[in-house]
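Worked example (supplementary).
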Amino acid sequence: MRISVETNGKTMEVEVRETADGRFRVELDDSEFTADARKLPEGGLSLMIGNDSLMVYRKGDELYINGILYRIKTEDPLKKELLQSSSFQASEGAVTAAMPGNVKKVLVKEGTEVKKGAGVVVLEAMKMENELEAPLSGTVEKIHVSEGQSVEAGALLFEIK
Amino acid sequence: MRISVETNGKTMEVEVRETADGRFRVELDDSEFTADARKLPEGGLSLMIGNDSLMVYRKGDELYINGILYRIKTEDPLKKELLQSSSFQASEGAVTAAMPGNVKKVLVKEGTEVKKGAGVVVLEAMKMENELEAPLSGTVEKIHVSEGQSVEAGALLFEIK
Amino acid sequence: MFKKVLVANRGEIAVRVMRTLKEMGIRTVTVFSDPDRIALHTLFADEAYPLGGTTSADSYLKGDKIIEIARNSGAEAIHPGYGFLSENADFAELCRENGVVFIGPPASAIRQMGDKVTSREIMTAAGVPVVPGFDKPDMTEKDALGFAEKAGFPVMIKASAGGGGKGMRKVDKAEDLGKALRAARSEALSSFGDGHVYVEKFVEHPRHIEIQILADNYGNVLYLGERDCSIQRRHQKVIEEAPSPFVPPEMRKKMGETAVQAARAAGYRNAGTVEFLVDKNHNFYFLEMNTRLQVEHPVTEWITGLDLVAEQVRIAAGELISLKQQDVKLQGHAVECRIYAEDPDNNFMPSPGTIQLLRTPAGPGIRDDSGIYEGGEISLYYDPLLSKLTAYGPDRDSAIRRMCRALDEYIVAGIKTNIEFHHKVLNHPEFAAGDHDTTFVSRHLDELTVGNSREKSLAVVAAAIHYYLNNKPVINSGQAQKCSQWKHFQRSGWL
Amino acid sequence: MFKKVLVANRGEIAVRVMRTLKEMGIRTVTVFSDPDRIALHTLFADEAYPLGGTTSADSYLKGDKIIEIARNSGAEAIHPGYGFLSENADFAELCRENGVVFIGPPASAIRQMGDKVTSREIMTAAGVPVVPGFDKPDMTEKDALGFAEKAGFPVMIKASAGGGGKGMRKVDKAEDLGKALRAARSEALSSFGDGHVYVEKFVEHPRHIEIQILADNYGNVLYLGERDCSIQRRHQKVIEEAPSPFVPPEMRKKMGETAVQAARAAGYRNAGTVEFLVDKNHNFYFLEMNTRLQVEHPVTEWITGLDLVAEQVRIAAGELISLKQQDVKLQGHAVECRIYAEDPDNNFMPSPGTIQLLRTPAGPGIRDDSGIYEGGEISLYYDPLLSKLTAYGPDRDSAIRRMCRALDEYIVAGIKTNIEFHHKVLNHPEFAAGDHDTTFVSRHLDELTVGNSREKSLAVVAAAIHYYLNNKPVINSGQAQKCSQWKHFQRSGWL
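After joint prediction of all chains, the assembly is encoded as:
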């Protein structure tokens, strides 16, 4: 199976094959690796790549190898094409919450003209305030939240046009 | 629901009811308890009985309350009756393995007459040998294992008649 | 001794305090907000009482309600932990009025030390060095200039009512002073409704070094060595150590004795911390006194062998401190890393969520004071401190290497944490040399936060195999196709 | 210093040794048997090599294969842990012949100390006290009686080739001696094919107290205080502590200096332990020397602040011991509980199986050296030691109370363990008074093993609610009935 692996903004193509004895051959650039894999309780994986013993846990894009965190995206190139063709393109002026939080303040009204970098909404979480700024100069088209409201990570907060 | 609870060889009848507000009323002997219950990750349970905070984990007959182990059996009296009427009665002279292990030695042959307490099979596990004795005087009817064999806990080892 | 004590806090510190109470044979009571019904401290206590509410103001800051619960449950004393009500003089007073022992200093000491100007006055009167400064109603530009030229530039203009850097200006030379004074006054007025400012000598490249003290009701005041808390981000400590690599023995003694003087001047009781700013010439200046248990108290426990919470409880119960100054022996070195739910690569933004996977370090010289468990929720309503990891070794170098080993064992998935950030700080040559000050993190921010710099090719191979196993084409029976890929993986022959 | 070291062991000790190696920046290599492919030590190592085989003899005892792996992997040294090859003189020699450093004493010291008669002779010659005894070819009843009357009854007849209590007889008075001598000879002959016996003074109510020593290649030999290991079951230690509540300072010094004498007499290098039997009058007698790291070394690490594995590695690499005798400072008190997979209520029978649930203790003064993880298998082929839990406190009482708190936090489900047994020992008045000897467990077996004696009514209520939630009648839709009860419980509204 061909898999594209992205890390630190760089994408690599990796070929993984299962061999007859239940081991794995992995090709990456010009190198070839042989690996033995065993499942661990709670979703972990023990890999012996050569004789390097790796304890692997994966949650989303987070890959832990012997306790060390790597941010790595993996995708099947086939699936990726499918996804990209139908993907939703978010507007440049739309701002979403990077973390769950409470809307502490809404600093401007809908229809106001703002400059790029002007504060629009203040989110609060865990004793810390975070002012979200207009990503571009323009008009505040829509504010989707009101003061005191709590929002999830990824929630659309406001749009500038 | 009526539940029979057995601990330290003593059986108690307990009545558990769910109340309208999602709490529990439990009657035990002359006492009544009110409890709030929340599920914890990995199968645990947080109980507030009165204001006592109990963290409860259960595996088989082992009940852990705030880390302290209680051996407790619980059964639905209805189910219990069903089970008892059809239960398999093991023979008095049959000896099973109390732990998984390796059969280190078989000390007697089938057909031999043995006295109660005579050694019949030696099981070995974790650097320790354990000699299993005849539970009654009689003839070694059948030996189900041979030297060097590994057995699971509960495996039938031999029968005396 | 008390039979039952209420812990009016949550998270790691509530659990840590209850551990000692349990060791002392004292029954533990705690309180919990609505989101904390199954938080670790609620589960850990012998008895737990609902406070209702979600925000801190609606729950853990409800002093009257907490005192009522203490009385109803039969708790004879309240341990406030840190934060929340721990430095609230009114709460301490209310406890006393209701016949509940507040495990901390008297309300008067909290009140005096809580006010910047008052505490500065008390310390000056007691001969404790403070940062040279000048304060006068309606201070003119000429007044300020007179001070600045005597003390030497740079100086700092600060709002009396200040906090969070507002109404604050650093002034490097005489000609900038007037403008800075006006700007600070105007900002102070608009931020706090009070335009009063004062001027202080600016301490360049300061280290933050604090002295732990213990004071009982019988006039005994002890110092337990110092902690160096110079690694800070956003004016908040992230790594602390004891002893400080910057403090020679004679300075340790002098700082310790000065801290005792400060505590006596404040009429202090129980455990407390006197914080100092230290300049590059080893001059130290009183910064403030924290009238409670510090977050970083475990590093002092490591090098003294003492249990500070046990000392707090004993002092509050009217007992003597368990030892004398001459019996305090500092041995070895300890480092603490505060494990926060935050993203160092994104301006240390908090990261609430569910702990999907948790592996905690253990073994020689490692202590983990945690308030979380696998599957638990990190709520956005409270402080993002997940755990305090401390490492001990015979010397600074071995303690640091031990900490690095433990950080590698520590896995928290599902939320972002600063574990990798800690690793980078500990491996930075400036930190390794003990040559850092409070500007360390901001000066090296880029080096400390750009992702993970370790070797990656095995990680790529591992990621690819992991993906393969979860997505490989199912070629067996129709039955298998109904299962998730992972289940199929579990059943297939290669395991 | 070494760049790469192979750890030829498994379980908790392999993990513990690798932790220190990682802290020293040394790459870790280990070996594993077939059942240990995903054992913790295999996962924990940087590199792991299959040994094949299942039993110890077929895997971890294959010295030649392990040396081959060390050479092929580029490991410069082998740490043997305890057990397995750690006291095998031939293996130590084979390492040397193959240019691999054996992290332990020279083969000659292992060989001499491994033989009961030789070690007794060496110690006697060096002036180290041994249990008074008499040994002569063809010893007559008269010879034995002569000794017994001089030394005083009771005496012990022991087989030279002995072990496991066979060929051993305790004799209380002169008229029983002849019969006992004949019986012991006959039993020794039939058990070992060698009827040679000798006679020794019987030490009544002995304590088992041992001295940790360190010896480098430059003639430095240090003693690091004693450990009291008198709590034993089946002649195996279960609870150890340092210091011993039975040893006053002057005796500590005398025992330490005697142990150094013993180590010098044996030409010893690296870490080792001199075991003594101590009678009620504080007389101590050489028992044997363990030429390796002891299971219970963490209690010494707690009170000295040292890392004994790091000292072992440094000594093996030709470095000096990191400190001098006068720098050894003992501070506080430490207790160790060995957590075994065994059933104390059933004659301590081993209990292999799967760890279904694991909650480990943490917080102040607690160290858990474990070789297991949740979901892992405890194999019947190896030692049943799961973990070593150690607790530290400023004094014995606080260390014991801390240990009790930690035992309450410790949950191991799926197999039987001795956690509750430990709790009972620690709470026994004789242990609390420090007044116990090696007969403690057998004398109090009934009190220590009859189930759980704590208050039970809340447990019954909890069990009933747990049962109810997993078995309550499903009254909703047909859909729900397809799910397991627990799933239904997860979905239902009351959560």
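Two points are worth noting when inspecting this output. DSSP finds one helix and 16 strands in chain B. Residues 78-160 of chain B form a domain with the OB fold (Dihydrolipoamide Acetyltransferase, E2P) fold (CATH 2.40.50.100).
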